[in-house]
Amino acid sequence: MLKQEFGCSTLTDIPFVAETIMPEPFLSDMIHALADMPHALSPKYFYDEEGSRLFDRICEQPEYYPTRCEMWVLRACASDIARHIGSHAEIVEYGAGSLHKIRPILDALDGPAHYLPIDISGEHLAASARMLQEAYPEISIAPLIGDYTGHLALPEKPTNVKKRIGFFPGSTLGNMHPREALRFLRMLRTQLHGGALLLGVDLIKDPAILHAAYNDSQGVTAAFNLNVLTRANRELGADFDLDAFAHCAFYNAPEHRIEMHLMCRKPQEIHLDGRCFRMSQGETLHTENSYKFTIGGLRTLASEAGFVPATVWTDPDRMFSLHWLDAPE
Ligand code: AVI
């Protein structure tokens, strides 16, 4: 894949490597979502600027426990995690966002490390990397802009790096279909050959807790879900009537997943790219799955991908888990 070196002097002095990012096929995916039955759209379209801001707010909602519980585990177990990582490691964070979750690990590490955060949102990554570099001048930070779910070529390991450790927190693995999750883990297994993966996943629990987490009382998750239609109206020239859709999220127990949908509250016509699509009352656009795991189930999946599951850390209520998965030579 083509790579480009550039300096972002206004945002940071850290040199960046950018993958050439193909434009996302939002229009064709939305046309398929409206034409096909059942209607389904990838959750990746949630994350425009407003969607990313709303997601950060979701993480602060009292009902949305995953971020809080994962941060608790990262802080409480940081020295043990740092011992697993060892010195002179390169940490590659997939979908790094605001670079908050790496901090407790960097605080606990003994010996300089390289940190390679990967995210598709270049500006946000640049600003976050600059702040992190100021706080940790002894760590070399080399952000990479790109889509980590595609076949992204990582730069060569620096010569003083002993091993490469992947970090994939936030239970983002749960937003992939199990088939896709296995394919993705196999790709990470190849990239992390000789190192390990530190993976955060949400655990199966009382459906009432899950339901509350995706139906917060402030309506932030609802706004996050509906924002994808606002984005389609703005970017694709669609004419979704926002008042005619309602946020709907529920736990599908047999599938072990939260499903998010946008439910049509009255019959309507949607015009997009010169076509007209009809939705009837009660029909839904399926916008996200968020799979929940058992510890055993995750370890089986990781083994199928070629990892050797080792230590597992959880919070005291076993809401969320962090897995150390070895990727032997
Ligand atoms: C990013 N991802 C792990 C979140 C989740 O919980 O599945 C996205 C989200 N959707 C609604 N609330 C949060």
Structural class: alpha/beta
What overall geometry do the principal axes of the alpha carbons give? globular
What is the first-to-last residue Cα distance? 25 Å
Radius of gyration, Cα only, in angstroms? 20 Å
Sequence of secondary-structure elements: EEHEHHHEHEHEEEHEHHEEEEEHEE
Could you tell me the strand content as a percent range?
25-35%
Question: Helical segment tally?
Answer: 10
Q: What compounds sit in this structure?
A: N,N-dimethyl-L-histidine
Mind summarizing the main beta sheet? 10 strands, mixed
The helix content is 25-40%
- The overall strand count is 16
Query: Regions with pLDDT < 50 over 5+ consecutive residues?
Result: 1-12
Please outline what is shown here.
With 329 residues, the protein is α/β, with parallel strands linked by helices. Helix content is 33%, strand content 28%. The chain contains ten helices and 16 strands.
